[in-house]
Structure formats: structure tokens, C-alpha cells
Amino acid sequence: MLFDIIVVIFTIFALNNILFYKNGIQNSLLLMVLAYIIGYRTFEPFTGIRIHPIEIIIYASMLRIFSTRVLKYYRMPVSIIITGYFFITIFVIDLFTRYNLNVLNEFKNAYLLILIFYIIQYIKIDKAFLQSLLRNYLYITTAIGFIGIVEYINPSLITIFFGTVYNEQIFTSHSLSFNRLAFLWWGAHLAANLIPPAFPILLYLGYERDKIIKNKMILVIILTLNLVAIYLSGNRISWLILTVFFAYTMVIYKNYIIPYIKTSATLIVIIFVIIVYSQPVEGRYISTFKALSGNIDARYDSSGDVRLQHINRAIKAIIEEPKGQGWASQGWLHSDLLQITVSIGIIPSMIFFGWIISLFLRLQITFFSIRKEEKTAIFVLCLFVIHIFMSLLFNGNILLVQTGAPLFLLLAISYYYSYNIKLMSHTEYQ
Description:
By secondary structure, this protein is mostly helical. 70% of the residues lie in helices and 4% in strands. The chain is built from 19 helices and four strands. Strand 3 and strand 4 form a beta hairpin. Helix 1 runs antiparallel to helix 2. The longest helix has 29 residues, at 401-429. It is globular, with a radius of gyration of 21 Å. The relative contact order is 0.12.
């Protein structure tokens, strides 16, 4: 199909750019973000081993770093290094005890976390680069949302270009039904999970008076496309993340919102409330909070019982083997927290997720102590970490490159940019 040819051309272009251009390593992050739109499409060099273009970009960046003299700007967090050692240790044990292709695929996809953190050590994450990276992220998520909406309205048109088969999914409540956007062209419902960061990005770009935000019409179109795409996806975790975003913004950032963005945020909330409290969406939305308390509403929550079974199975496995049962030992558990804990053990899992929580707390402290000009950037990073933590807690992302890598990249960017701001503040103080 036409899109598959485009994927091949893009991958060749990315390899050439990373390996031979002067700013190849820096460009690798921008290319990685562009590759999000590829979705599930992979190369299969060996039977059963699928390599995503995002992985190729990461491996090419590693090769460029090892083969040339590159200036190192930062140090990796100790907790991430320790987590990486556990990843490798468990994989080596698996090689000699229970190796299969599922073990390899789950390990290599999860280990992208470590590789992304390693690569960004060699990229200066200043304000200009951050703004460029986030602008590209916004472009791509908006494109993903737009194509998803077209799939929902006219699936045959998407089939011509992407070669997918439409499979309508309906959630029924009495005589009412909610037709859920499947994102079949992308390969997973979790495409919706890439969209929530678009709203903090709009806040940041608005504060920085980015060229894309100056036109109010463009702003409204971007807001509407992303919001409609999340709504049609039926992804309750994305709905929940937006709810937390709004509550957190109103509590923490209320005194810093510039009027231009305040109007936009109000528009988002009004639209969101109207569509979410229309039946049967209201029932599906409220079922999210019921599920969190263990009360599964089968009328709206078709996967709640399955998730509960995954949780019980994971807890049983963790109790039986707190040191970890190895990669791909329990299949897909619908939660990265459970997936990682079952695979590598309680202690390394606590180190990793504890570090994410500590990063959020440090960002929050920095927000209240930093100069006003940097508050918006730090606040947006706080929202990113909220998105990452909730995604890892409630969704299974790391088994797919196209859903795991975006979270890893946002996490690494949040850490390194905040570290960069700290260094600048310390220098100014001296």
C-alpha cells in the first residue's frame, strides 16, 4: 500500500539524516516524534522479530554516538541506570531458562526506556529545542486524531490509503449505543493515549507566543480535533487524564494562566462536559471511577472484568515470586506497573516508579521556587509526568513500541529540561 512505501522512504531518510548529518543525534528526537504517526507498521528482518521505525531511529542514534565524538550534556538518573541493570539481568536469566521470542520482544521494547534516556544525554534540551520538539508532537497527535476522525466518518477512504479493514465497535446501554473509534489505521485504541499531552503543549506554546498559536482559528481547530478524537476513542483513561489535567491546572496554575489560554481552557471544559454527560457516554465515563473502586458496571465497562482478572493474576504472580518471573511470563496485564513488577520484581519496580513520583515532586517544588518566566514550562512538565504515571498505572503501553516510546521520550524530556533549568538558575545565582 501507499503508506507502507512512505514508511520505507521515511525510515531510509531518517537513517541517512542521523548517521551522516551534522546534527543527526539532535534530529533523531524530532524524527522519532514524526514516526509516531506510523502506528503498528514494522519491519521483520527475522521470523517473529519485528522492528519498528522508532527502534531503527534509536539504534541509529546509538551507533552515531558510539562512532563519533559527541559532547555529553547530562548524566542519566541513577534510578534509571539501576532499572536498566535489572532489565538486562532478568533478560540474561531468561536466555538460559525460558527464552522465546516473546521474551526478546518484551525486553527490547521495554529497554527503549534506557536507550532514550542515554541518547538525550548528548542533546542540549534548551528552550528553543523543547519548543520545536513539542510543536512537532502537537502536529503529529493532531494528525493522528484527524485521520482517526476520518476513519470514523468514512472508513472506506482510510482503507484505500492505509489498507486497513474497518471493524465497528459498539458499546450499548439499553436503546442507546456509543460507537467507538478503533484507530485501526494506527493499530490500537491506545493511539488516543498520545493525545492528552497536546493540551499542555498548547498551553506552553501559547505562553511562548509560538507562531502556531497566534491564529485563533488554528488554535480552535487543533483543540477541537484533539478533543473529538479522544471522545470518539472511548478511551476512559484518556478522559480521566484530561479531568485530572483540568483539576490540577485550576488548583495549581490558576494565578498564572494568561487570558488567551484561559479562554481556550474554558472552551475545552465546556465541550468536554457537554459530550461526556450525554448518554451513554456519561455511563462509560462514570464507570471509570466505579472501576477504580472495584465496582465494575458491565453495562458500560465491557473490559472491567477482564482487567480485574489481570490484576488478580498479576498480584498472585508477584506474591509467588517477588523477585520477578521474567519477561513475558504473564502475557499482557493491561498495566505497565503490574507488567514491570511481575517481570523484574518488586524492588526494581519500586525504584523506577518511585523515581517518577520523586521527579513529579521535585518539579512541583521547582515550580513554586523558579522565576516566573520558567513557571509555565515546569508546570507543563508536571502535567506530562501526571500523564505518564497514569498511563503506566492504568494502561499496558510498553509491549508496543508506538505506545511505549512516546511515554519514555516525554519522561526523559521532563527530567533533562528541568535539570537544565536548575543548572541555569544555579549559574545565575552564583
